[in-house]
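Q: Please design a sequence for this.
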């Protein structure tokens, strides 16, 4: 029976890490029906596997904070406004939290197996994302109709985003999974294969944030494999770098020929840095980002500072009162609008997470997460965020017996 539960847990983990419930129309069901069903199943298993040790986990404390504050502000705002509720983010928090509670309870007596399961998730999700990305690239109109119920003709720019919908969220998730895989897996050569596939997908996403995250990971890899005392490069790093530069040279040399022979509507990182149209779009995106931050600071002021809308009424309040096109592209400001002055508690927990990452000597993982919090609107409600905090919780609780500290 437990073996069946392990399989169910693994499959739901793939749905969570890859947002795969967006493909529900393929089996004739709506996304909402599938999502609610998955949440209910996950909740049921989490209750049956609940462990009191979870109370010490920071991902659980953060989630409970989001849930409690959202419900309190929901009832307060309900009394004086006509905003329309949206429970999407709250449902996601409950789903991710219950899943990791269930996962921990399932593996708590054999944490090594849990780290192995995380590796299997990350490899599987990479394979799935590659398949989804190819589908998105070659059948973009069909993909948009399936995922978003929106078919756009005569596309001028196609950026890989898959079921993450947003290209930056897509790139952030891939970079995070890459780092966790590198730090957890013992397969030295395949780490660089994983790196190359991730680099390709992030390039196709056109995400400048993704490029920053990749550079951070690459620098960390080089420093981790370089012996400063003897000034020698680890042989695995030397071999991997040779492969990376060889393949990158091949990609660059064929980039122009590829784009001239095939009608290519993709907006890659190369386009955004070296193509005039791509640079124009990138500049416009930066301007919109700055405007969103200004709108966010305006939205957080006044009465909102003391009686904020919470996660449930945030979207309606933004559309009704602020009327800005974009939500603030900074998760800290986003939370400030949602929770007002009370944002100090989740921010404090983030500081504790940072301290733990330093203790575990994997502060780079927190840095990757922090960049996403700085550059994405609601990254604290992504499965990537919960995976990172859960992973750090696991490492901290089992600091003497984790793959990270055995390196």
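A: Design:
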């Amino acid at each position: 029976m437990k073996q069946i539960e392990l399989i169910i847990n693994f499959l739901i983990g793939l749905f969570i890490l890859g947002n795969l419930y967006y493909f529900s129309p393929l089996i004739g069901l709506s996304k909402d029906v599938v999502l609610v069903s998955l949440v209910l199943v996950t909740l049921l298993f989490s209750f049956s596997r609940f462990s009191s040790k979870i109370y010490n986990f920071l991902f659980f404390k953060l989630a409970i904070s989001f849930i409690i504050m959202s419900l309190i502000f929901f009832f307060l705002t309900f009394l004086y406004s006509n905003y329309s509720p949206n429970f999407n983010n709250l449902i996601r928090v409950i789903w991710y939290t219950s899943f990791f509670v269930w996962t921990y309870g399932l593996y708590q007596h054999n944490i090594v197996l849990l780290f192995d399961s995380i590796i299997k998730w990350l490899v599987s999700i990479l394979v799935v994302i590659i398949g989804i990305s190819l589908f998105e690239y070659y059948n973009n109109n069909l993909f948009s109709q399936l995922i978003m119920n929106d078919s756009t003709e005569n596309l001028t720019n196609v950026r890989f985003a898959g079921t993450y919908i947003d290209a930056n969220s897509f790139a952030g998730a891939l970079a995070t999974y890459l780092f966790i895989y590198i730090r957890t897996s013992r397969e030295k050569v395949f780490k660089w294969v994983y790196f190359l596939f991730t680099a390709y997908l992030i390039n196709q996403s056109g995400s400048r944030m993704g490029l920053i995250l990749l550079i951070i990971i690459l620098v960390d890899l080089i420093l981790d494999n370089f012996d400063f005392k003897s000034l020698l490069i680890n042989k695995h790093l030397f071999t991997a770098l040779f492969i990376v530069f060889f393949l990158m040279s091949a990609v660059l040399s064929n980039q122009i020929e590829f784009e001239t022979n095939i009608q290519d509507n993709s907006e890659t990182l190369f386009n955004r840095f070296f193509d005039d149209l791509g640079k124009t779009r990138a500049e416009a995106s930066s301007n919109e980002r700055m405007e969103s931050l200004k709108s966010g600071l305006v939205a957080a002021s006044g009465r909102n500072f003391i009686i904020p809308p919470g996660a449930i009424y945030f979207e309606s309040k933004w559309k009704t009162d602020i009327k800005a096109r974009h939500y603030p592209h900074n998760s800290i400001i986003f939370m400030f609008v949602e929770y007002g002055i009370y944002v100090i508690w989740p921010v404090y927990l983030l500081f504790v997470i940072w301290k733990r990452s330093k203790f575990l000597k994997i502060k780079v993982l927190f840095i990757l997460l922090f960049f996403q919090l700085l550059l994405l609107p609601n990254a604290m409600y992504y499965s990537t965020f919960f995976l990172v905090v859960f992973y750090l919780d696991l490492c901290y609780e089992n600091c003497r017996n984790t793959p990270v500290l055995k390196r």
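Q: Thanks. Anything notable?
A: The chain has a mean pLDDT of 83. The longest strand covers residues 226-227.
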